[in-house]
Design goal:
mainly alpha
Length: about 325
Amino acid sequence: MLKTCSLQRCGCFQPAKLGAPVRPQRAAFRAAAAGKQSANSAGTAAPLQLSRRQALVQLPGSALLASLAALLAAEQLSTAVPPAAAAPGPRQLDQETKAAVAAALNKVVTKPKAPVILRLAYHDAATFSAAAGDGGANASIQFELGRPENTGLKRGWRLIEQVSDELKKTPAAGKLSNADLIALAGAHAVAVCGGPVIDVPVGRVDAAGPDPEYRMVSEKAGVAALVANFAEKGLGVQQLVALSGAHTIGGKGFGDPVTFDNAYYTSLLAKPWLNPNDPMADMIGLPSDHALPDDPECLKLIETYAADQQRFFKDFAAAYQQLTNLGAVWA
């Protein structure tokens, strides 16, 4: 007959053939057990020098299982794989960093400077090409300031550099790229002029050089060219009309130059540039602005935003988020 331990895997006992010599481990255990029995019968306690495995065998069933589970858990803990790093992608600012950024923007990007910053944000992101898969919100504007379409934006870039300097020695130091600062500053420019508060995630990677040329639509473009240019970026007519509302600030003749409201759309419906009695009529808006109300699809959105400022704010905020995410490479 085979005599086996109920815990064969522990290594203390192995099956023994009849007539086979008793292995040393088993003999030692029997000797220890016999010694324990003799000592007990004599009324004295004899200490046993047992191995950890032999000691485990002496435990009751429930205690044995608990001890084995503890050993297994300790072994797993010692070989645990460290958690993987967070995947690249947009992230939100923590409260401490957000407060530092807000303080810097409030100091540098005041109302009179808001229009150039908002224009800078658009010109940085609008180089994106969906077909080519490059360009976009990457701070490449710093290398493109000499292009004709970017005339006047050196002032805007200097403001971004000032914001960056303000953030040194704050909790935000080293946490934001220039592309993030441009997007955040543009959103601040809208809010400081009374427009919607726009949530802007961060984590963009800065470009090492300029984006390709000739991707900005002309200020003299008609509706067809405007729609086609926005389509190349993956944007539609709604985004075109909503983002054009940024012209409500900046002194283009659409209401107060530092108030972000829906005056742009009410002016488009009135078409003041056609007033023959106004010697300054030609100075109101751009040719691309004048073209929008002549298109039925654009006109419908213009009428909606002229009648409902909150709807304009909502659609502008969504379009701005899309714009400042175009082509972004995330750290």
